[in-house]
UniProtKB/TrEMBL annotation:
<dbReference type="InterPro" id="IPR040680">
    <property type="entry name" value="DUF5643"/>
</dbReference>
<feature type="domain" description="DUF5643">
    <location>
        <begin position="220"/>
        <end position="327"/>
    </location>
</feature>
<dbReference type="InterPro" id="IPR025436">
    <property type="entry name" value="DUF4179"/>
</dbReference>
<keyword id="KW-0812">Transmembrane</keyword>
<feature type="domain" description="DUF4179">
    <location>
        <begin position="44"/>
        <end position="136"/>
    </location>
</feature>
<dbReference type="Pfam" id="PF13786">
    <property type="entry name" value="DUF4179"/>
</dbReference>
<feature type="transmembrane region" description="Helical">
    <location>
        <begin position="51"/>
        <end position="69"/>
    </location>
</feature>
<protein>
    <recommendedName>
        <fullName>DUF4179 domain-containing protein</fullName>
    </recommendedName>
</protein>
<keyword id="KW-1133">Transmembrane helix</keyword>
<keyword id="KW-0472">Membrane</keyword>
<dbReference type="Pfam" id="PF18705">
    <property type="entry name" value="DUF5643"/>
</dbReference>
């Protein structure tokens, strides 16, 4: 495996972005805990993500002008109305179907060396870009079928993500998505997509077409903020807020007090609160820095239409998943069900280590051992799936998770959680959920397994499908615990949304 550290020094890779090169690194196994930091990586035994550099093609291919066509008449795949609905969720578990309503039909195809690529639909407004495509060829690999460089009106996107779904051995559906709030887009947008490699086949597949921005349909709007605050070692400016039914983003920038050789802005993350003090679902959508200045984007997943104001707070110290170092690995501390809502019951820390299986290795697990650290009630009582339903798990000082439902079939075990309280808890933490039986046999997500999905952002409902289990046995369910962010009042910035 090539060393990913050098690559990440040069490429800005947010949490939810997957990039690929022609034959290069199919899978990097390091989880990147902070998008803004290009240097500091957290060694993690779970949820590894691939990262690499995308080669851009210099040849401009097909040129076409695309008008609006009702996407309801577009059938990209027989029997499937929309690739957005087929792929369903992106890598962060956010729904993709929201893009369908505002999409424009493209239906342009290029075939090279036995690989046929079709751009089906595109949705673009001031905040978001989403493109559906199908790739056809013999024995396609789902994990190496990704679109290449994207330009909008001549401006290259700094980062983007993609989610694939295998239709059969010879056909892959792809949704490519990006946050474009940092680009000032005109009403008419020239889109270029240049892909050099698909799997081990060299193209290029170069598309060029023009579409209209969907702002009138999506009612997206831009609020100029121009709010400045002095923070340690720099001056931070909140530049603008883009509000759209497809997503919301705050663009920020900053200037260092003096030349900064490390190029680190010192901001670990941002917390966003609504007018009632509730923590909203927010995360970085990319950042960059040089020795003199920096810039970035804060993505807010919650619907802001009925919120009067928000408060943005930069956080300077690490917060999030609790870890304990074992054998040079940072292992998540998981809280198990305790069969009680008395969270003061005596508990103990239990560490379980086992060798990785051949099947786990084949699916991408990178380490030789699987290590779990559990906070567990001292009685160590395991119960039936029926008795686990509606149990609460205290995962942080101000937040609990209720097990709303357990759906156990012969194909999967679906766990549905609802989070309550005012603490921050990333939905992606549920990717590390574990079901353990009385013999401490663990059932968890495989490296190539389904990711957690946000079923309802407002009500904080998150679900994940794990492998099937024996419904007659007794179990505990465990999910990661988190610590709280340090909120400093002097750095709070209030934004009025009613102006």
């Amino acid at each position: 495996m090539d060393n990913l550290d050098n690559i990440k020094d040069y490429v800005d890779i947010p949490n939810d972005i997957d990039l690929a090169i022609k034959k290069g690194i199919e899978r990097g196994r390091e989880e990147k805990k902070k998008s803004e930091s290009m240097v500091s990586l957290v060694k993690n035994k779970k949820v590894f993500k691939k990262a690499a550099i995308i080669a851009a093609a210099g040849v401009i291919g097909i040129i076409s002008v695309v008008g609006f066509i009702n996407p309801n008449v577009v059938k990209a795949i027989p029997g499937v109305q929309s690739i957005f609905k087929l792929v369903a969720y992106n890598q962060d578990g956010e729904t993709l179907s929201k893009f369908e309503k505002f999409s424009t039909s493209v239906n342009k195809t290029i075939e090279k060396n036995g690989i046929k690529v079709t751009i089906n639909e595109i949705t673009i407004d001031d905040n978001s870009l989403a493109i559906t495509s199908t790739v056809e060829g013999k024995n396609l690999n789902e994990n190496t079928t990704e679109m290449g460089q994207i330009n909008l009106n001549g401006q290259s996107l700094k980062s983007w993500g993609s989610k694939n779904k295998k239709i059969n051995d010879n056909e892959i559906a792809v949704v490519t998505y990006a946050n474009v709030s940092d680009i000032n887009l005109s009403d008419s947008i020239e889109v270029e997509m240049n892909t050099v490699w698909i799997s081990d086949v060299k193209g290029p597949w170069n598309f060029k077409f023009t579409v209209s921005k969907a702002d009138k349909q999506s009612n997206s709007k831009i609020i100029t903020l121009d709010k400045t605050i002095k923070i340690p070692n720099s001056t931070l400016k909140l530049d603008k807020l883009v509000i759209s039914p497809l997503g919301n983003t705050i663009n920020y920038s900053g200037v260092y007090d003096k030349e900064n050789p490390s190029m680190r802005d010192g901001i670990y993350s941002f917390l966003v609160l609504d007018d009632k003090g509730r923590t909203l679902e927010a995360k970085s959508s990319g950042s960059s820095s040089n020795k003199n200045k920096y810039e970035g984007k804060i993505q807010i997943d919650d619907d802001l239409s009925n919120i009067k104001s928000i408060t943005v707070v930069p956080i300077f110290k690490y917060w999030g998943t609790n870890y304990k170092k074992i054998e040079d690995l940072n292992c998540e501390i998981l809280q198990t069900t305790i069969n009680s809502e008395n969270f003061n019951l005596p508990q103990e820390e239990v560490t379980k280590t086992r060798p990785v299986t051949a099947e786990e290795k084949s699916k991408g697990y990178a380490l030789d051992d699987v290590i779990h650290i559990y906070n567990m009630d001292k009685t160590r009582e395991f119960v039936s799936l029926e008795k686990l339903t509606n149990q609460k798990i205290k995962v942080g000082k101000n937040i609990t998770a209720t097990i709303k439902n357990i759906e156990a079939t012969d194909k999967y075990t679906k766990l549905t959680f609802q989070f309550e309280g005012n603490g921050g808890y990333s939905p992606q933490n549920i990717n590390m959920a574990v079901i353990l039986d009385e013999n401490y046999k663990d059932t968890e997500r495989a490296e190539d397994g389904d990711l957690a999905v946000q079923e309802d952002i407002k009500d904080r409902i998150v679900s994940i499908k794990l492998p099937p289990i024996d419904k007659t046995k007794k179990y505990k369910i465990a999910i990661p615990t988190v610590n709280e962010p340090e909120i400093l009042d002097q750095y709070k910035v209030k934004i009025d949304l009613e102006k």
